């Protein structure tokens, strides 16, 4: 049954009971009993009548009962119905607005530092875990260099034509030598200058195949592993995560699921999907529980919004993760305002 049909099926009494159950749950995080509701409803109803209405809502899949006598909780379907069809979004609180404005008011030339401050501020303001996906750097490449840091660690330095520099530590193939690293760097620099990273990735496989005879095997492996640092989004450090400890302070009861969420964030899996989720439409999107593949095992919700560059192209996203009982009405305008402000600030920058 579609959400529109479900809403149509609810009469005025059922809507009020359902709305009160959800709002009370979002406020307290506890199952809601019929006696509690009878004191809050505008229409004077007996506890028995309220119980009957709640049973009907449970039959429709909108409420769950964790225990026989423990009251009712909104189901994932119920939360989705409430968020899409009944929730009232608050106006952005002036205190929250001032905190966000202050974060972006210091025009740091380093975009990474700026967005790290944004992520920290979002976490503090919302008391959830915040996520900021930084934009890719698309300027032409000037120089690439590999630097050995030890037997199992190496640094790759990428210098762009506009002066931007990216450094990345990675694990090189076993047995690399300074000589093979120089060869790999020379090989990439011969074909990289003037190309963007995307253009270089498109050419690298073909070029390695053509010139493999000119490289020793280990140098070829280094080229492939080094360039994969930018080609493989699952290890992309563009995702800034702050405030993970807030999830432990929240009332997500299943610690094993929280650990899974932490593992997902640490490994930064499915980062491409995180951005793609926002590219299907402008504005804030809300993913509850298993609706979001990225955090489907965490028992959590994600509120996320894209931000755009000066050409109105989506280049990144900001979001907040919390328990499914997030105060959506407050979080949505915070995320929306932050995304718009980040877009305006970055659009005003050169490069």
Automatic annotation (TrEMBL):
PANTHER family: HEAT-INDUCIBLE TRANSCRIPTION REPRESSOR HRCA
HAMAP family listed in its UniProt record: HrcA
GO MF assignments: DNA binding
Family listed: Belongs to the HrcA family.
Source species: Paracoccus tibetensis
Chain's role: Negative regulator of class I heat shock genes (grpE-dnaK-dnaJ and groELS operons). Prevents heat-shock induction of these operons.
InterPro entries: GAF-like_dom_sf, HrcA, HrcA_C, WH-like_DNA-bd_sf, WH_DNA-bd_sf, WHTH_transcript_rep_HrcA_IDD
Residue span, Heat-inducible transcription repressor HrcA C-terminal domain: 114-332
This protein's name: Heat-inducible transcription repressor HrcA
Keywords assigned by UniProt, alphabetized: Repressor, Stress response, Transcription, Transcription regulation
Domain of life of the source: Bacteria
Any one GO biological process: negative regulation of DNA-templated transcription
Pfam families found in the cross-reference section: HrcA
Keyword DNA-binding found: no
């Amino acid at each position: 049954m579609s959400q529109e049909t479900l809403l149509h099926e609810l009469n005025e009494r059922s809507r009020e009971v359902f709305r009160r159950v959800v709002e009370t749950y979002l406020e307290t995080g506890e199952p809601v009993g019929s006696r509690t509701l009878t004191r809050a409803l505008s229409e004077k109803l007996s506890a028995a009548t309220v119980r009957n209405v709640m049973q009907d809502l449970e039959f429709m899949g909108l409420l769950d009962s964790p225990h026989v006598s423990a009251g009712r909780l909104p189901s994932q379907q119920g939360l989705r119905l409430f968020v899409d069809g009944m929730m009232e979004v608050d106006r952005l609180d002036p205190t929250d607005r001032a905190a966000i404005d202050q974060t972006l008011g210091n025009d740091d030339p380093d975009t990474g530092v700026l967005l790290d401050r944004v992520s920290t501020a979002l976490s503090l303001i919302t008391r959830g875990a915040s996520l900021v996906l930084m934009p890719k750097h698309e300027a032409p490449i000037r120089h690439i260099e590999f630097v050995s840091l030890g037997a199992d660690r190496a640094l790759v330095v990428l210098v762009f034509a506009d002066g931007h520099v990216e450094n990345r530590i990675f694990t090189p193939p076993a047995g690399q030598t300074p000589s093979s690293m120089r060869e790999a760097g020379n090989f990439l620099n011969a074909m990289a200058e003037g190309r963007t990273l995307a253009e270089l990735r498109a050419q690298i496989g073909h070029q390695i195949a053509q010139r493999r005879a000119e490289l020793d095997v280990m140098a070829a492996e280094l080229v492939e592993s080094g360039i994969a640092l930018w080609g493989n989004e699952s290890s992309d450090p563009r995702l800034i995560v702050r405030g993970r400890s807030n999830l432990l302070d929240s009332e997500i009861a299943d610690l094993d699921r929280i650990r899974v969420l932490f593992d997902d964030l640490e490994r930064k899996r499915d980062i491409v999907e995180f951005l793609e989720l926002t590219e299907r439409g402008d504005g804030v999107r809300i993913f509850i529980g298993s609706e979001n593949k990225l955090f489907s095992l965490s028992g959590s919700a994600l509120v996320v919004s894209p931000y755009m560059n000066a050409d109105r192209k989506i280049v990144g996203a900001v979001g907040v993760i919390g328990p499914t009982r997030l105060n959506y009405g407050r979080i949505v305008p915070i995320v929306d305002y932050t995304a718009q402000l980040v877009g305006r600030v970055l659009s005003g920058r050169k490069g």
